[in-house]
Write a structure and sequence with these properties.
Layout (H helix, E strand, L loop, with lengths): L3 H13 L21 E5 L2 E4 L4 E4 L14 H11 L10 H13 L5 E5 L2 H16 L3 E5 L17 H4 L10 H4 L2 E4 L4 H10 L4 E6 L15 H12 L2 E5 L11 H6 L5 E4 L10 E5 L1 H4 L18 H16 L2 H23 L4 E6 L2 E6 L7 H8 L3 H11 L2 E2 L8 E2 L6 H15 L3
Parallel strand pairs: 3-13, 5-6, 5-7, 7-8, 8-9
Antiparallel strand pairs: 1-2, 2-3, 4-10, 9-10, 11-12, 12-14
Helix pairs in contact: 2-11, 3-11, 7-8, 12-15
The structure holds 4'-deoxy-4'-aminopyridoxal-5'-phosphate.
Length: 429
């Protein structure tokens, strides 16, 4: 495939945008080469500036669960835009999407809209601190909760790829309040809690991790955290930015039958527009301004266009729960197909999957936490794999630490084509 115009646009971009991108992982720094500039997209496909058609397994990093330019979402946004783009006043649609989210998600009474996943997680932690009166938080190595200071301590996603697990600009004072645990290691969390008795406000995690590849929770891990939090008065915060409204209508809470005290959302809840949200029971949410003392705000929060996209998306997911089954089935089909051809080509690999999130890791060791994800990523095979896929029109995330997001717009023909390409690329690894 030819990427001439993309490369020229990247050269222009680098002159006026740091690294040519507005979010680091887009720059292809981990895998090398120039990023693809996209002109438009429809359903399962991206069309780039060189008019290549690519089958998309990123889907805007998760939000586009029904594919690109999904008509009900686009129509809702266009209709709203004609009525004005932002008022800075309450609007009815904010209540309607909140009602729907509260109905779909277990154990929440109220939800507050923000503009990104970062804001959602940052605000959730402030709320947890305000509610408990404690300062420290526990996060897991390899989990990514956005780029707010407290989370840039061994974060996953682009923060790993770029080798800046402790970013300059994050103060020692902030870093000391973030305690790090190993994902899927309950004993490790218990030790941290024991060593910091009465000091911990919350434990925050991606209940199915998606920022070190896809890493499902080990049997008993989430229930163990829930029990530990109940025994110690620590709040359990599920960052369902990736998993919310994707793995089930009620996210991981529903699928794993474990409730969190605060839940963070992003991605699907905004239907592809900038939306994040955090939610909890009344006793916690009523600590927020304007009724409570914990301050949190946003000029564009609850923006009508963003709410219209989100409401259209959630309405469709709520009225047709078969969508969740359909994307899981498609992902399982892809899983089986890739497994078969990688085996036939005698490649050492591990595929991790949970519902419609999937990642391919090279090497034979199980990938269950950040250390094992890093070991596999360091083998370098992924980068060759990535470029082979791209050359053949398959767009996967440009980093070994990312999950793939399957959309319901993908047809079985698209999946078969993808498996064929995996077979072809495997012969070159
Ligand atoms: N939490 C998780 C689990 C995420 O995957 C992300 C982004 N990939 C974030 C938080 C941050 O969201 P945003 O990029 O919208 O700030």
């Amino acid at each position: 495939m030819i990427y001439k115009r993309s490369s020229a646009l990247f050269t222009d971009a680098k002159k006026v945008i740091p690294g040519g991108v507005n979010s680091p992982v887009r720059a292809f720094k981990a895998v090398g080469g120039d990023p693809v500039f996209v002109k438009r997209a429809a359903g399962a496909y991206l069309y780039d500036e060189d008019d290549n058609q690519l089958i998309d397994y990123i889907n805007s990093w998760g939000p586009l669960i029904l594919g690109h330019a999904h008509k009900p979402v686009v129509d809702a946004v266009v209709e709203k835009a004609r009525m004005g783009t932002s008022f800075g006043t309450p609007t009815e649609i904010e209540t309607r999407i909140a009602e729907l989210a509260v109905k779909m998600v277990p154990n929440i009474d109220k939800i507050r809209m923000v503009n990104s996943g970062t804001e959602a997680c940052m605000s959730a932690v402030r709320l947890a601190r305000g509610f408990t009166g404690k300062d420290k938080i526990i996060k897991f190595a390899g989990c990514y909760h956005g780029h707010s200071d407290s989370f840039l301590i061994q974060a996953g996603s682009g923060a790993v790829t770029f080798g800046s697990p402790n970013s300059p600009g994050v103060t020692q004072g902030t870093a000391k309040d973030t305690l790090l645990a190993n994902f899927n290691d309950l004993e490790n969390v218990k030790e941290l809690v024991e060593a910091n008795k009465e000091e911990i406000a919350c434990i925050i995690l991606e209940p199915v991790a998606g920022n070190m590849g896809c890493i499902p929770p080990a049997e008993g891990f989430l229930k163990g955290l829930r029990k530990l939090c109940d025994e110690t008065g620590i709040l359990l915060v599920f960052d369902e930015v990736m998993t919310g409204f994707r793995l089930a209508a009620g996210g991981v809470q529903q699928r794993e039958n474990v409730v969190a005290d605060i839940v963070c959302f992003g991605k699907v809840i905004g239907g592809g527009l900038p939306v994040g949200a955090f939610a909890a029971r009344n006793e916690i949410m009523d600590h927020l301004a304007p009724i409570g003392p914990v301050y949190q705000a946003g000029t564009l929060s609850g923006n009508p266009l963003a709410m219209a996209a989100g409401l259209a998306m959630l309405t469709e997911l709520d009225s047709n729960p078969e969508i969740f089954k359909s994307i899981d089935k498609k992902t399982a089909y892809l899983h089986e197909g890739m497994e078969k051809v990688l085996k036939q080509n005698e490649i050492d690999f591990t595929i991790n999957r949970y519902g419609s999130m999937i990642s391919v890791h090279f090497g034979l060791d199980a990938v269950t936490d950040f250390a094992s994800a890093a070991k596999s990523a360091n083998l370098g095979t992924f980068n060759k794999f990535f470029h082979g896929m791209l050359e053949n029109g398959i767009y996967i995330a440009p980093s070994a630490y990312e999950t793939w997001f399957i959309s319901d717009a993908l047809s079985y023909e698209d999946l078969d084509r993808t498996i064929e390409v995996v077979d072809k690329v495997a012969k070159t690894l």
